[in-house]
Amino acid sequence: MVRKPTIDFSRNETLVAIVVVLFVAMTAIVDHNFLSLPTLFDLLRGAIVMGIFAIGVLLVLISGGIDVSFTAIAAFAMYSTTSLLVHFKLDIPWPFVFLLSVAIGAGLGLLNALFIAGFRLPTLIVTLGTLSIIRGFLLTFIGSQLISNLPANLRVFSRLFMIRGTTADGSFYSLPWAFAALVIVVAVTWFLLYRTMLGRMIFALGGSLESARRIGINVQATQVFVYAFVGGISGLAGIIHAAMARVANPFDIVGLELSVIAAVVLGGARLSGGYGTITGALLGVALITLINNSLILLGIPSTWQMVVIGMLILLGTGIPAYQTKRAARRAG
Amino acid sequence: MQTPTEARQTSSDNSVLLRLLRADNSRLAVITIVIFVIMTLLSPERFLSAGNLSSMAFQFPEFAILSLAMMLVMLTGGIDLSVVGTANLSAIIAALLLAALAGTDATGGFAIAAILLAIIVAIMVGLSAGLLNGVAIGAFGLPPILATLGTGLVFTGLGVALTGGSAVIGFPDDFAALGNSAIFGLPVPLLIFALLAVAMTFMLDRTKYGLRVQLFGTNPLAARFAGINDLALTIRTYVISGGLASVAGLVIMSRANSAKADYGSSYLLLSILICVLGGINPYGGFGRVSGLVLAVLSLQFLSSGLNMLQVSNFATELIWGALLLLVMTTNGLRLRRKGRGSASTS
Prior knowledge:
The structure holds 2 protein chains of 2 kinds.
Chain A: H1 12-30, H2 37-62, H3 70-87, H4 94-118, H5 123-142, H6 152-158, E1 161-166, E2 172-176, H7 178-195, H8 197-207, H9 209-214, H10 219-245, H11 257-266, H12 278-294, H13 305-331
Antiparallel strand pairs in A: 1-2
Helix pairs in contact in A: 1-12, 2-7, 2-10, 2-11, 2-12, 3-4, 3-5, 3-10, 4-5, 4-10, 7-8, 8-10, 11-12
Chain B: H1 3-10, H2 16-22, H3 26-42, H4 44-47, H5 50-75, H6 83-101, H7 108-139, H8 144-163, H9 177-180, E1 182-183, E2 186-187, H10 188-206, H11 208-218, H12 220-225, H13 230-256, H14 267-277, H15 289-308, H16 313-338, H17 340-343
Antiparallel strand pairs in B: 1-2
């Protein structure tokens, strides 16, 4: 494919990038303190967990599926990991805590894979079912109480900062090391999607399941990988959420699923599968985070926040959809 | 529709029981009865008590009506994530109107007139919300899941903005009758649901529109080549769905005697679950109201029964999910035996 040097305005990524820039510009005009390091780091910190989720959702969408259970997986992995550590007073370093949570997440992802690849059921229905099962199991059998005294090693992690300092006018800013997790997830997923055979298989699956099968791709094995990988990523996002919030709340996270999917689709990933970019997904997350944090600065009351996000989803997906429809009609 | 003929072809050598099990929704009917019997055996004097039966009959109609709204769009291969937002927005606007026109003290003819006006306004709001969905999906080509996700946020957001996030209260006493009274021992919400379910069955089985919905859901391209106006069909479907959602909103409002933007937030996934459990194909084309009714009843028996056994709500959620996967797995195995093509729609 030849890359066009001009900006392609029909791409969602371009549209979202333009909206992000406009939004930042407008907020900066209204509030002069907006363009500053503390704001930037606040926004970055706010986007870590949603960004990690978005990468997982992107992978599932590219493979032609949809996953609504990832928030339940994250909450389950996060809460069961912390309660294991607290209950048995395990004193293991934080990298192993993270590994445990990732492993629990991947295990739950395999549960999705069992029904999707094993019984070949539609992905939306399976993940809807596992969402109820995982959440119900967590709250019934593992616990529904807040754990506020996190293991000491997790607290150590939450105090690790990549960058910290004070601006000239004395306001404090910092970026936790948790941000590196997002960077690593992005890098690994990028390598996986664009530099490995497995990545090509995932794209092929989303393009056409039947064609993928006929050219000899092991569809089941690829699906098992996708759902286990996404489960693992969700486990990571969950434990990072707990570490940053400094509390493990089993009721947290669940409920985010539709906004994460919306962010990824705003960034151009197709629900029909086979297409999506990491840049787009991250831009979508940037836009949603930006709106969540700065509508008030623009003088829009917080009660109108949901309306604005809803309109943005309608416009952001409506304009490209309408262009595609018109192009299809012109083509005959 | 397709299963009975197939059952006739393949099961000539099978017993009557097996043949029954292959008929439409029969597996779900058996599951529903089994749940009912188990719950009755586990706590006979309480589960079968008049109090419990009537409380169940008051509880399920609101989400059953929402499921009807979800079912219709699913038959066209779409989905409506805005049903709860539509229901709440309709209820909030009706509530604001009702509270402003006639307070709690209003009685007699004036109160009735105000209530009727509020009901009409609520349904108009629901129909307009559906129109917006239909236009976004049919005319602008947005995928249904995104269009209704966006409009759902807008509707809920408008509800929050109109009320500041708090509940609207202060209606005439007569309004509570809609959700809380009974005629000849039958709860009014149940009667409303029964009426709508019968109307929906008639519409799907006996009208041109119903046939077109199923054709379009089975194969949109073939339907277009068969001369079906897909834009008009899509708009009409979402408008009806919005209207149904607003009726559910009114029932919830009457039962709670208030309207709030976050009422019934768990009903969205529940209504999808009910439709899928009831055998409605989420990719469109196939599904029956009788399946939906069975799914609603089985979930209500489960949750009331478990509630009596002091099982937590969270465990009920777990069991609902497990039931969904169980039914889908057994259906899927049957589908897979018929051929690989039909099962690989994911």
